[in-house]
Design goal:
This protein has about 600 residues and is an alpha/beta fold. The protein folds into three domains: about 5-200, Pyruvate-ferredoxin Oxidoreductase, domain 3 (3-Layer(aba) Sandwich), CATH 3.40.920; about 210-390, Thiamin diphosphate (ThDP)-binding fold, Pyr/PP domains (Rossmann fold, 3-Layer(aba) Sandwich); about 490-600, Rossmann fold (3-Layer(aba) Sandwich), CATH 3.40.50. The protein has 20 helices and 22 strands. The strands form five sheets. A seven-stranded mixed β-sheet has the order 11-10-12-13-15-14-20, sandwiched between helices. Strand 18 (about 500-505), helix 17 (about 505-520) and strand 19 (about 525-530) form a beta-alpha-beta unit. The longest helix has 21 residues, at about 170-190.
Length: about 600
């Protein structure tokens, strides 16, 4: 037997359940109770794409140091699903703990010699206390929550309060759950010895909030001035549109009940983006929420937005593809499809938020960017950010901020005799002036088309006219570099030939991995990319290092491909670090992968500057 793991406020608990068993409520109570004790957590739900019957997991990382990424490995496995038993037991770190229902005896071969086994007769306790089948199933989850609270020293008053809040107005149901909780707690106190994992009250959560990225992005859309949402349900983006509706009802409803917003559930994704572009053409701020398969269907209309220069925002909550893929698993696999969406030569503005706080910030600023550059803006979340609750800093908003509508020619400007050409580059930045429909009775009107036209929106298939327009669109894209969020750089403690680039939800695990790699003697300068087009700082960062690792969650190194293509970088200089099994990337994976690659690549040490 290995020495039992021992830790205070720093371990990973994973629940292995069956979808539809009612375990989500108990597992969520477990996570929130730890937050109420002032201890930071990072919780992730790994669930199937059916309604019930298949395996589901809920992983809670307890981190007194505040690490929000997945660590990798499990210290305490709560194994409630016989179908996944072998897999779940294999995942426990040596010296860790296995918690299971011991009502029926298990053969010794089902256990490991290097872990510690905690058996609680959950079914027996349920059968003795309850008569109904569904009642037994549901309260079994609360009983194991009670047992865990004893083992880990969770303050019982915290869970009692959470149950009271959860069943507010249903006092009888709250009391029944509290009784089941104490049934498990008391049994564990009487029959189980202490274990090496323990929780102690702390004050490390502070004023941080606990929110999922989709809800944060929906709120950001409200603050960004969106008034139209057209969408078609698809996992994992549905809760983003629902979040927008919830917040719009609160903030965009007049006292007489009339609404200052419109939400349309269209017949499909193609119709959704068509509605968005139509609303944007009329001057409304509009968006859709979708995932990879939806982006595939929207390609033609996205090309129209780019070429006719109509603002639109698309929130793409990425999942594992291609085709239907794994609808409830996370990936960063829509990078190239978003950047180059549609046929022909197109380049779109793409934002990469790292957590719910940036989902809110980018969700708001995307509408300013779309208006300023009169084009589609993609906000690339993923399932890990979108559908999991994250602990993050409170959102901030400057009430003096006003919407940036970009270059819009008013009736007064037209009356003053200013020349108006819908695609005329007046300022040399590639961004033309537009007008809203009905701005002036006989000036400033134009016909919006998806075919080639000249600077004054007049149909033309002249090669010179087409080239002039396409080159202006490139100038506009170049101008956008200064307006999209710039990359964030973190220097190593010493001069190093190694750099690492990462983006999106990989950020949390990456931050922890950087510290671990430094402890291993591998120092890396780090850069988090936050937007496309790429700022010139990214090229300078790559040129300053002999080897740059690019960490991403897809098979084909899509960001690496984009960097090579857009920055004209030698592929040999960019070393991919790829994680794409559908689960969120872990700090352990990054540490191991970069550690192996750093010792195998041929690196010439950086020369010191001449005196």
């Amino acid at each position: 037997m290995r020495q039992p793991l021992s830790a205070i406020n720093d371990f990973v608990v994973k629940f292995a359940n069956v979808n539809g068993s009612g375990s989500a409520s108990a597992n969520g109570l477990f996570a929130r109770s730890i937050l109420r004790m002032g201890i930071p957590i990072a919780a992730r739900n790994i669930f199937p794409s059916n309604i019930q019957g298949l395996p589901t997991w809920y992983e809670v990382r307890i981190s007194g140091e505040g690490h929000m990424g997945r660590r990798g490995g499990v210290d305490l496995m709560v194994a409630m699903n016989p179908q996944t038993w072998d897999r779940d037991v294999a995942e426990i770190d040596a010296g860790g703990y296995l918690f299971y229902d011991s009502t029926k005896p298990m053969p010794k071969s089902k256990f490991r010699d290097d872990i510690n086994v905690i058996g609680v007769p959950l079914t027996e306790l349920c059968n003795a206390a309850y008569s109904g089948a569904r009642e037994r199933q549901l309260f079994k989850n609360i009983i194991y929550l009670g047992a865990l609270s004893t083992l880990l020293s969770i303050d019982p008053a915290v869970i009692e309060q959470l149950l009271t809040e959860q069943y507010k107005g249903k006092e009888k149901l709250a009391k029944s759950n509290q009784d089941a909780f104490h049934l498990g707690r008391d049994w564990a106190a009487t029959n189980l010895p202490p274990i090496g994992l323990r929780l102690e009250k702390a004050d490390k959560v502070g004023n941080r909030i606990y929110i999922e990225g989709n809800a944060a992005a929906g709120l950001g859309a409200v603050y960004g001035g969106a008034t139209v949402c057209a969408w078609y349900p698809i996992t994992p983006s549905t809760s983003l549109a629902e979040g927008f509706e919830k917040y719009a009802k609160r903030f965009r409803t007049n006292k007489d009940g009339t609404k200052n917003y419109a939400i349309v559930q269209a017949e499909d994704e193609l119709a959704s983006i068509g509605i968005v572009i139509g609303a944007g053409w009329n001057g409304a701020r509009a968006f859709t929420a979708t995932s990879g398969p939806g982006i595939s269907l929207m390609q033609e209309f996205v090309g129209l937005s780019y070429f006719a220069e109509v603002p639109a925002v698309i929130f793409d909550v990425q999942r594992a593809g291609p085709s239907t893929g794994m609808p409830t698993r996370t990936q960063q696999s829509d990078v190239l499809s978003a950047a180059y969406a549609s046929h022909g030569d197109t380049k779109h503005l793409v934002l990469f938020p790292e957590d719910p706080r940036e989902c809110f910030e980018f969700g708001a600023s995307a509408f300013d960017i779309a208006d300023r550059f009169q084009s589609t803006v993609f906000v690339l979340l993923d399932l890990d950010i979108g559908m999991n609750d994250w602990l993050c800093e409170p959102f901030e908003w400057d009430d003096s901020k006003r919407m940036d509508r970009g270059k819009v020619m008013t009736a007064e400007m037209l009356e003053s005799g200013r020349e108006f050409g819908r695609y005329l580059d007046v300022d040399g930045d590639g961004v033309p002036f537009r007008t809203y429909p009905g701005t002036h009775p006989n000036k400033g009107a134009f016909f919006t088309r998806g075919t080639s036209r000249d600077r004054f929106a007049k149909y033309s298939e002249s090669g010179a006219v087409y080239v002039d327009n396409m080159e202006r669109l490139l100038r506009k894209f170049e101008t956008a570099k200064q307006y999209v969020p710039h990359p964030v750089e973190k220097k190593a403690a010493r001069t190093t030939p190694y750099g690492v680039i990462y983006y999106g939800s990989s950020s949390a695990a990456m931050q922890e991995a950087l510290a671990a790699l430094q402890a291993d003697g591998i120092h890396l300068d780090a850069m988090r990319i936050r937007a496309f087009p790429f700022h010139d700082d990214i090229t300078r960062f790559i040129e300053a290092h002999d080897t740059v690792f690019i960490v991403e969650q897809n098979r084909d190194a899509q960001l690496r491909t984009l960097v090579m293509n857009e920055c004209n970088i030698d592929p040999a200089k960019l070393v991919p670090v790829l994680h794409f099994d559908g689960t969120p990337i872990t700090a352990r994976f990054i540490r191991d992968a970069i550690g192996r690659k750093a010792t195998s690549v041929d690196v010439v040490p950086l020369r010191k500057a001449a005196p």
